[in-house]
């Protein structure tokens, strides 16, 4: 049986932390789907648009060997039922999430909603010291 899994993220300013996370996801499944946060969805969620537009972020993700499929994610993680329905329609057995989000309110609500739909959630390690926010801060500082 093929294990189909997914993950959702903005993947703005694609960096080594993103790549390591996606590789870790792919190592635990046969087929990896990535839900890319749409520009408007990211703006609603983070109160700012991604630096790299959604079309370019999708193209970069599709170029990675560890990613089998990329789809635009539009509901927003704050909308628990719409997100759970979107993930269920996506036909995955498992969703990977970075460990940093485990205790957060979004995944605390989403995990049981997904369990009701037969979808498991697995938390994977976060790459310490590497983040889009840190990269943006270094750029602003002129480093």
Give the structure's gist in a few sentences.
This protein has 143 residues and is of the alpha/beta class. The protein has helices spanning 16-27, 39-46, 54-62, 80-89, 105-115, 132-140; strands at residues 4-9, 31-37, 69-73, 94-98, 120-124. The chain is globular and about 50 Å long.
SSE arrangement:
Elements: E1 4-9, H1 16-27, E2 31-37, H2 39-46, H3 54-62, E3 69-73, H4 80-89, E4 94-98, H5 105-115, E5 120-124, H6 132-140
Parallel strand pairs: 1-2, 1-4, 2-3, 4-5
Helix pairs in contact: 4-5
**Gyration radius from CA atoms, angstroms:** 15 Å
What is the count of DSSP helices, taking H or I runs of 4+ residues? Answer: 6
As for the CATH topology, it is: Rossmann fold
* The CATH top-level class label: Alpha Beta
State the order of secondary-structure elements, H for helix, E for strand: EHEHHEHEHEH
Which regions have little confidence, pLDDT < 50, spanning 5+ residues? none
Instruction: Report the sheet-strand fraction.
Output: 15-25%
Distance between the termini: 49 Å
Largest sheet: 5 strands, parallel
Total DSSP E strands = 5
Shape: globular
């Amino acid at each position: 049986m093929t294990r189909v899994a997914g993950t959702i993220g903005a993947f703005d300013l694609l960096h080594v932390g993103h790549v390591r996370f996606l590789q870790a996801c792919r190592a635990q499944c046969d087929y990896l789907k990535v839900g890319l946060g749409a520009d408007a969805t990211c703006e609603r969620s983070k109160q700012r648009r991604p630096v790299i537009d959604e079309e370019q972020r999708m193209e970069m993700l599709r170029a990675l060997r560890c990613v089998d499929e990329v789809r635009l994610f539009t509901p927003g993680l704050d909308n628990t039922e719409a997100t759970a329905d979107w993930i269920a329609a996506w036909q995955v057995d498992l969703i990977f999430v970075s460990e940093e989000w485990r205790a957060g309110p979004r995944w605390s609500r989403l995990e049981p909603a997904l369990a009701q739909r037969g979808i498991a959630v697995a938390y994977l390690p976060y790459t310490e010291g590497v983040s889009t926010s840190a990269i943006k801060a270094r750029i602003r500082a002129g480093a």
